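Purpose: get a first structural picture of the assembly so the mutagenesis plan has something to point at.
Setup: two entries, given in the order below. No constraints added.
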Amino acid sequence: MFSFVTLPSIIAKYGIFNSSFAESPPKNTELHCTVYTPSGNQGLVYFYTYLKDLLSGTGFLEMTSLFYGYYTIDAAWFSILRYNLPLAYLLATFAYLALSLLWIIKRSVEGFKQNLVHHEDQFQSYCNKVFAGWDFCITDPNAARLKHRSLQYELQTDLEEERLKRKIADRTMKEKLRIYSLRIFINIIVIAVLSGCFYSIYRATVFSQENSNKDVGNKNFQANLFVQYLPSVVITLANFIAPQIFSFLITFEDYSPAFEIRLTLMRCVFVRLANIGVLLFSLWSQISHCTTDKCKACGYNYELYPCWESEVGREMYKLMIFDFIIILAVTLFVDFPRKLLVTHCSCKPVQWCGLQEFGISDNVLEIIYGQTICWIGTFFSPLLPAIATIKYFIIFYIKKISLIHTRKPAARPIRASSSNFFFLVVLLIGLVLAFVPLGISIAHIPSSKACGPFRSFNTSWAVVPATVLGFPTGLQQVLHAIASEAFAVPFFMVICLIMVYLIALAGAHKRVVEQLREQLALESRDKLFLIRKITEAQRCP
Amino acid sequence: AYKRFSELLPKEERENACSVRVPKSQILKLPELRANPFQHRICHVFSTSDNGDDSMSFEDFLDMLSVFSDSAILEVKSHYAFRIFDFDDDGILDRKDLEKLVNCLTGQGEDSQLSNAEMEQLIQNILEESDIDKDGTINLSEFQLVVSRSPDFA
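Result (structure tokens, whole complex):
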């Protein structure tokens, strides 16, 4: 994103390498739509205004290349090459999304193969664990203790799952009815909790947008900042409270332990990702809320949001900064004091709390949440990936230090291989979720007429048809043919056929594996027969 | 390997390292064996001393290292593993051996051992999976068969 969009803009604006640029004025639009006065560079400003602007992405930051509003160039010339900036912006967005998609799919395919074929536990899992379970390379007593505990936990969970399976098979009709109705009731409670979260996020975003005042510098610094950050605060609170509620509720549902963990994880993931979705939805309802005719001509609420893409980018930027601050704050102000308290104060309640456990799933969910914000926000704020990279770099080292000093290892070790695939699937869900808002905003919502590279187009997507019309006629015909229905429908059917074939192939492989296992069991019975024959033959020579 | 062995000996006997036997307490100080729950069994299996004090000579030490190295073949490893797991040295793994084995794996403390019911269930499952002639014990060939199919063993 950086190399294709930001770099050319900077080069062209400053005239390096003999380049020049052209800004074509927007045509066929109403004049009032194009008025945009960002409140940056207003002469002498106080220091706290800088801090406020840094934290909330307004003021001087608005005019930098951080946000969408900076990219006003329509075409740039590097010596003789003509570089179409709006097209580059759009294509770079698609390219990075496609790259991320391919990368995730490549990583998860390996895990998927394992899962598909070995989904049921190996038929020798107990022997494998007992005879080959100990890692003979362990030299440290602490590590040995950990290994002991993990082996014990694994054996116990396996035995418990077996017991549970037997119990489920033995359930009577009445018990089944009771359990299913209980599960439906608890799912209703979960949906209610989720709706509560979504509604509060919606209200908070609306309130924040209405009350945050960017121009008046006299307003109370803290109050203004707090109002700006209100959606982020609400989202973080929801992300924190909801998992606690879910893990409390799931104890009533009587599932097997592995399924419990999976279901709680799925619910937490849903809460986190849907929170972002609701935030964006409420932003859009504000942006597209149009009552006057003048407003309808522009297609969006031009009074409040002359440059709505920057506004969305600003929200994403705030979310990311707030996420970063919260992680730092939790690490510094909760973990370290807790560790100090536990080691120096020996009263009963403190010892009972103990050190925080290192939960792999919680940390992975945090990372996925941050990454989804980054994906969504990059279209509106091209330098966001750079900020995200720096943020994760710092967070990695902070978490590493905090882990070594303040956390104790989880009492429930997670099996790494199957969880790896699951986390990649969740990351994929996050990416797909990022597609949806980007798709809607590129193709459906009219782009700002006052700022950004798409001023002369109706929607951001309109750049592509305009460029296609500029191609030679032969290529145009080919592209039109590809996009038409006559091509799309047979293509779709061929893809479906290939998918059906591959699914059948996978099913066949699975059956082959089953048959081979049965054959192994038969072999052992043959051996048994032969051993008996041999002993008989030995007995009577 | 000679250097490691001679480090275990007290200073005055270093020159005769080839012929001297190292007492068990010294062997157990090796870092690889310190945290190993099977340390006593390992010493016992590899030691060729006549008076049963589990001391090891240099040849025994070399034997031990060669069996545990990456280049040992599966048969050799499974043979020695069988001897290590066989706590009462009767040539077969019966229920008592399996019970001691599981207790070694899960740790020595009071709260880290499986309950009796769990132990029974576990031993039942193990025997179901590996006991081919259904005599309630695992002999060397059954053990080698099971181990050859376990991906984690090597």
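Chain B has a mean pLDDT of 71.
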